[in-house]
Amino acid sequence: MSYLIVIGVTIAIYAMLTVALNMVVGYAGQPNLAQSAFLGLGAYFAAVLSTRYHLGFWWTIPVSFGVAGLAGFILGAISLRLREDFLAITTIGLNFVVVAIFQYIPFFGGAVGIYSIPLPTIGARTFGNLDFLVVALLMLALVVAVSKYLEKTWLGASLTAVRDDESAAASVGIPVASYKVVAFTLSAAFAGMAGSIYAPFLSAITPTSFGFTESVVILSMLIFGGSGTIRGALVGALVLGALPEVFRFISNFRLLTYGAILLLMLRFQPQGLLGEASAVSSLIGKVTAPARRAADSRANGRAGEGRTRDRGTPRN
Amino acid sequence: MFTSSLINGITTGSLYALIALGPSLIYGLLRVLDIANAAGLTLGAYAGLKVWKATGSLPLGICAGIVVSAVFGLGLQRLLYRPILNRGPLIPLIASIGTFIAMEEVFRLVFGPYPLAFPAKIPLPTLRLGGAVITGVHLLILIIGLVVLVGTWFTLRRTRLGLFWRATSQDRQTAEAMGINTRGVIAAIFIIGYALAAVSGIMLGINYNTVYPTMGDIPAYKMLAIIVLGGLGNPIGTIAAAMLIGLVETFVVMYAGFVLPRDAIAFIVLIIILLVRPQGLLPGPRTTK
């Protein structure tokens, strides 16, 4: 039972990361291969502040949120100046710079990382695994709620417009630039918040656990589930997060599995498992009542059109 | 001190040029950032090491590495890149990263997680040049670097393949309409690109006397920095950028005692330069149109 709870917390943390990443990748259509760098920023600030400065867990949450959000804001500002593939490279580079900072700046504890991070307390009670699960799920609920809000309101609609056709969006008066920056900032801030619970949950963190491959793992979860939808992000984190736990032998080829899944999905099913217009979604669509389908198309009408269309001009 | 740093920097730069040239040529044709090229580098190094160990002949090992890596590259182009090429620039990039990461795991499972030694003797003398020592390996890297530099310039400017490469990279449809076999050009460039990767992998392996599953990591990400600096898809610019990064890294580490490791320097330089000149240091083929 306790083991299941531990897996649950891990999956909830991954789910926060994928749902947050979906704001940038799915809604705004911007590449971001640095999600674990933001997780790392959040985790490191939470770890340093609680271990060395005895800041309580509840206070480290806003700090991690803010620090990672600030880094995301900067990346968002940078993203405005760069083409898609240059931006992808910049985000890859960010992983290396952040890991190097953790490794070589003494404030962050060097290559050994930070250990014996104190357990959070609530009142007089020290956190057990169940408390971690409850807090992680509450955090996840917050991320999902914000994400839902983004999707439903004008901001979500116009972010999708940014993804599908940036200049058209700009021409009808949508301030494309500021939305991209908002998406990057929120996404990074929530990844940082996930870091604030990740650190005390593991009780020890090392620089290399926030490297580039971890960012790729998070991205494969999102692409597997279906980028652009919250359900896709959740299912991706759930399935790929549970996979190495359910099948122990997979944990030996974890990266091979994620790499192969990424390849097969992109090659044969780029919408992901549950993305709009994906095989599973259309199957569900066929089975459920037409009324539901009508409601669906009303809600997703504009976004759906853009996704099935061939994006951009044909490349040479 | 200065001379030896200079020579070190040029050697490092030549290695970087070898590593980045293939992806740069491929980017010029397909607009795909081919990170999986670094898997070709590791694959070539392992194949070269195994054949060298079995036969005792380094040239044979290098040939084996080139063949294995080129076949891998060609297969990747046919089975992976071709079907997903028209889905925007990011999908092939992410697929390429997926390939690279999966291949690293394959290397670990097949060849074991531990570094293997690659103590091949290079039949070249050790030179002394005003206090600087150039070992046989470094000399070989410099010679290969020079050959590749001149060869690239010659191929691109003076041969049919070079002409076809330039035509295809500028406008594939028009090149096809003019009767150029663009599929053949793409196949040839993938073979060349992965052959260069295998050579650089073997040179890296001999130079540091070690071959290991994740040896492609740093080359993979550094080559990205280099080809962006050089103006994406501009091979001559790539070579210039490789030299620049090689020299800057060596001198910064030597004289400034930079707090971050040298591998982070390339990316910091890259991020700064992208902010000042978002189109890269030198114009790529897109802007010369």
Kindly describe this structure.
The complex is a heterodimer of chains A (316) and B (289). Chain A is mainly alpha-helical and 316 residues long. Chain A has 13 helices and two strands. Chain A is 73% helix and 1% strand. In chain A, helix 1 packs antiparallel against helix 10, helix 5 runs antiparallel to helix 8 and helix 6 crosses helix 13. The C terminus of chain A is likely disordered. Helix content of chain B is 75%, strand content 2%. Chain B has twelve helices and two strands; from the N terminus they run H-H-H-H-E-E-H-H-H-H-H-H-H-H. Chain B has a two-stranded antiparallel sheet. In chain B, a hairpin with a 2-residue loop joins strand 1 and strand 2. The N and C termini of chain B lie far apart (44 Å). At the A-B interface, helix 4, helix 9 and helix 11 of A face helix 3, helix 4, helix 9 and helix 11 of B.
> What are the segments of chain B in which pLDDT stays under 50 over at least 5 consecutive residues?
none
Radius of gyration of chain B, taken over Cα atoms and rounded to an integer in Å: 19 Å
Shape of chain A: globular
- Strand-residue fraction of chain B? under 5%
Helix content of chain A: over 70%
* Shape designation of chain B: globular
Q: Gap between N and C termini of chain A, in Å?
A: 55 Å
The DSSP helix count of chain B reads 12
Biggest chain pair contact, residues each? A-B, 47 and 47 residues
Mean pLDDT of chain A: 82
What's the assembly state of these chains?
heterodimer
> Could you tell me how far the N terminus lies from the C terminus of chain B, measured between alpha carbons in angstroms?
44 Å
| Helix/strand class of chain B | mainly alpha
Low-confidence stretches of chain A: 301-316
Give the rounded overall mean pLDDT of chain B. Answer: 85
Question: Can I get a quick summary?
Answer:
With 316 residues, chain A is mainly alpha-helical. In chain A, 73% of the residues lie in helices and 1% in strands. Chain A has a two-stranded antiparallel sheet with strand order 1-2.
